[in-house]
């Protein structure tokens, strides 16, 4: 078969388009050969005439969708239906026609001069004819920009374009195919061009002189003002750095990276009284420089700054901070410790008073003179109790108490040798009955709360005439206790008290006597203690001194108990109700017994006790609900108004004993009944309407012995007898 490669142009119509013809050498034009087409698009896009081998396209062919098709052709015998020839492969290539206008990749391009170099492309086949040959031209953007007609490169057309004058430009570019000839298609796009910034503008101060005011109380590092230079550039090209020309002792300037301002700060404390005005020069320059513009321009500027210090009312200032004072611990109360001093830094130099913050001296150990700041002791100091005392002294302006300053004062208490050494611990010492002379029974040591500069050195000693023990100083602040003899016996002495004198080597020398208790114990042959209890002695041997002391102590305790018991019994005797023999009415006896309140007044009718004539036998108790277990008994009033008082009391006692409604407990019944027909009538001063001067009590002497005491009390006060 031949014609294995077919070429055809893009087909945009609706009718079948002839592609080409296949022919086999086996075809004798007798109608026995049948052509069959297979492969890409066979049957639906491409069809073949079975007899002639003509190939037609049945649909629109677009090269932009598919540029080549591969097909296979067969030759079959119509009679036997077998292949007369092997499969033959052939290609159909679609040629391009100018059916697409040039298109840019984006509708709007964004570029920055001078880096932008966008190139538009055409979808047509650039290898076939002039369909895809583009020509570029600029429709809008002249005279600032131009475009290369062949490759579409956009370039600046005017030199010295300044971003600070105009930053953004809109350029319209046209691309036309067919090499720009008549009939060619075209497309346009818009290019948004932004002039990128370069550092072509130096910073400049709008005002080359600045005046700043600062108060003298501004803290070190505090800001007192800001200055700013202008730079029309943007981004890093506008970043600036401020500095003081030649530096300055009192001030510094730092750059605020956010606002690009120079912040003036205080480097040292200001003092209005010392200096009030300062002047210095400030330089500003760009941080980043462009080498293309460095030679032609000075990218820095200068300004003069004048600082004026304002006066404020300042707090007092101490000459030192803090104070450290040393004092010996043996200093007596009222002794001088040290002095603090403060002054008013203002020009007026106002007077200052001193005080101690008592929150720092709770024990009130120190005092300070409010006028001169002298510190003295109020109490004696003890280094062993506290080695340091930290107090705060406050200085206050007298004319303005709100201006105060405090300073710490550290008082160190120096050591004085005022404590004697003593045993370092409590020792449990024993000596065996079978001990030999010169044997070690205890090693002792001492401690001293004082701290001498050269260290402790203790000396141990005992009475040289001690027949039982001896001491050996080891020269290392310890000593050994040795036995001077042997043959100790518990029956003779179960315990020895050994006084040990301990001295130090400081000045003045301090010494103390500590007693070492040595028990006599029974030990085995190797010196191990077995028991230290004293042996029980037979009665025939007599009593020991300890037993005699114990017996005597028991006797003394018994005597003290007997004396105490006798004193208590004597104190319990009841004293007479009326101590003074003066007027009975002038003696008030107080009882600390609280009454029942309403219960007493409701339980008993006091009115019945006043006089028998007002008694009512039908009165019942008001504190309980009466029960009719027994008939109420009516007590008749006294018929004999001249009856004796004793008979009256006995009658009332009998009535209460036989009354079933009476309280079950003992109760005190008080009667104000004196007896009917008495010549003296009532003796109560509360109910008497006459004064003492109007009464004559001589008749009381005729009443007999029972009223002798009463007669002595009243008759003695009679005016006649007094005269």
UniProtKB/TrEMBL annotation:
Name the residues that span the membrane.
547-568
What positions does the domain Cadherin occupy?
Answer: 27-104, 120-205, 206-318, 319-423, 423-536
Question: Which residue windows are coiled coil?
Answer: none
Q: Which InterPro entries match?
A: Cadherin (IPR039808), Cadherin-like_dom (IPR002126), Cadherin-like_sf (IPR015919), Cadherin_CS (IPR020894), Cadherin_Y-type_LIR (IPR000233), Catenin-bd_sf (IPR027397)
Matching entries from PROSITE patterns are given as: CADHERIN_1, CADHERIN_2
User: What's the protein's topology in the membrane?
Assistant: Single-pass type I membrane protein
Gene Ontology molecular-function annotations: beta-catenin binding; cadherin binding; calcium ion binding
Q: Where in the cell is it found?
A: Cell junction, Adherens junction; Cell membrane
Gene Ontology annotations of biological process type: adherens junction organization; calcium-dependent cell-cell adhesion via plasma membrane cell adhesion molecules; cell migration; cell morphogenesis; cell-cell adhesion mediated by cadherin; cell-cell junction assembly; homophilic cell adhesion via plasma membrane adhesion molecules; morphogenesis of an epithelium
**UniProt keywords, alphabetically:** Calcium, Cell adhesion, Cell junction, Cell membrane, Cleavage on pair of basic residues, Glycoprotein, Membrane, Metal-binding, Repeat, Signal, Transmembrane, Transmembrane helix
GO CC terms on record? Answer: adherens junction; catenin complex
Segments for region (Disordered): 676-697
The free-text function statement in the UniProt record for this protein reads: Cadherins are calcium-dependent cell adhesion proteins. They preferentially interact with themselves in a homophilic manner in connecting cells; cadherins may thus contribute to the sorting of heterogeneous cell types.
Instruction: Please name the PANTHER family in this protein's record.
Output: CADHERIN-23, CADHERIN-6
Q: What is this protein called?
A: Cadherin-6
Source species of the chain: Muraenolepis orangiensis (Patagonian moray cod)
Taxonomic path: Eukaryota, Metazoa, Chordata, Craniata, Vertebrata
């Amino acid at each position: 078969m031949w014609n294995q490669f077919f070429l055809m142009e893009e087909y945009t119509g609706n009718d079948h388009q002839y592609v080409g013809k296949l022919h086999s050498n086996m075809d004798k034009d007798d109608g026995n050969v049948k052509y069959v087409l297979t492969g890409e698009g066979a049957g639906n896009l491409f069809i073949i005439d079975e007899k002639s081998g003509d190939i037609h396209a049945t649909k629109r062919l677009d090269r932009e969708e598919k540029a080549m098709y591969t097909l296979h052709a067969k030759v079959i015998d119509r009679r036997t239906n077998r292949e007369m020839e092997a499969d033959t492969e052939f290609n159909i290539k679609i040629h391009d026609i100018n059916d697409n206008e040039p298109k840019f990749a984006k509708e709007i391009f964004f570029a920055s001069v001078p880096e932008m170099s966008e190139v538009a492309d055409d979808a047509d086949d650039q290898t076939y004819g002039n369909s895809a040959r583009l020509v570029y031209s600029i429709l809008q953007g002249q005279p600032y920009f131009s475009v290369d007609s062949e490759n579409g490169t956009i370039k600046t057309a005017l030199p010295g374009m300044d971003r600070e004058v105009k930053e953004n430009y809109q350029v319209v570019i046209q691309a036309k195919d067919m090499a720009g000839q008549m009939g060619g298609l075209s497309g346009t796009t818009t290019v948004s061009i932004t002039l990128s910034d370069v550092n072509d503008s130096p910073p400049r101060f709008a005002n080359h002189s600045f005046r700043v005011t600062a108060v003298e109380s501004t803290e070190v590092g505090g800001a007192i003002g800001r200055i700013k230079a202008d730079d029309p550039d943007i981004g890093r090209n506008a970043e600036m750095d401020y500095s003081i020309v030649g530096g300055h002792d009192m001030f510094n300037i730092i750059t605020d990276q956010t606002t690009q301002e120079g912040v003036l700060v205080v480097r040292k404390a200001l003092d209005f009284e010392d200096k009030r005005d300062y002047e210095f020069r400030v330089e500003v320059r760009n941080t980043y420089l462009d080498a293309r513009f460095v030679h032609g321009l000075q990218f820095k500027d200068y300004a003069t700054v004048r600082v004026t210090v304002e006066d404020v009312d300042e707090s007092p200032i101490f000459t030192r901070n803090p104070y450290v004072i040393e004092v010996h611990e043996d200093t007596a109360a009222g002794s001088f410790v040290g002095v603090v001093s403060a002054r008013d830094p203002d020009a007026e130099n106002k007077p200052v008073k001193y005080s101690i913050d008592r929150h720092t001296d709770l024990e009130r150990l120190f005092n300070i003179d409010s006028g001169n700041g002298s510190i003295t002791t109020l109490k004696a100091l003890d280094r062993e109790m506290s080695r340091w005392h930290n107090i705060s002294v406050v200085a206050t302006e007298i004319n303005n108490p709100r201006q105060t300053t405090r300073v710490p004062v550290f008082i160190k208490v120096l050591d004085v040798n005022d404590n004697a050494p003593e045993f370092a611990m409590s020792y449990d010492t024993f000596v065996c009955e079978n001990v030999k002379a010169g044997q070690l029974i205890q090693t002792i040591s001492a401690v001293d709360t004082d701290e001498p500069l050269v260290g402790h050195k203790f000396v141990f000693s005992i009475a040289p005439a001690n027949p039982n023990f001896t001491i050996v100083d080891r020269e290392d602040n310890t000593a050994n206790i040795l036995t001077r003899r042997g043959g100790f016996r518990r029956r003779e002495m179960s315990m020895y008290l050994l006084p040990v004198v301990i001295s130090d080597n400081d000045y003045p020398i301090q010494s103390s006597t500590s007693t070492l208790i040595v028990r006599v114990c029974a030990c085995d042959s190797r010196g191990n203690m077995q028991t230290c209890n004293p042996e029980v002695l037979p009665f025939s041997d007599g009593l020991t001194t300890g037993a005699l002391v114990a017996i005597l102590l028991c006797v003394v305790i018994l005597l003290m108990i007997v004396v105490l018991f006798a004193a208590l019994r004597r104190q319990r005797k009841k004293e007479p109700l009326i101590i003074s023999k003066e007027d009975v009415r002038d003696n008030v006896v107080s009882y600390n017994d609280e009454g029942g309140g309403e219960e007493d007044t409701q339980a008993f009718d006091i009115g019945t006790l006043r006089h028998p004539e007002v008694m009512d036998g039908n009165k019942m108790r008001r504190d309980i609900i009466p029960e009719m277990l027994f008939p109420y008994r009516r007590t008749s009033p006294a018929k004999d108004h001249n009856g004796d008082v004793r008979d009256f009391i006995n009658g009332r006692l009998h009535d209460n004993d036989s009354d079933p409604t009476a309280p079950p407990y003992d109760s005190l019944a008080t009667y104000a009944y004196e007896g009917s027909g008495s010549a003296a009538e009532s003796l109560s001063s509360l109910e008497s309407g006459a004064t003492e001067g109007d009464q004559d009590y001589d008749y009381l002497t005729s009443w007999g012995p029972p009223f002798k005491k009463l007669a002595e009390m009243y008759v003695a006060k009679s005016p006649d007898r007094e005269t």
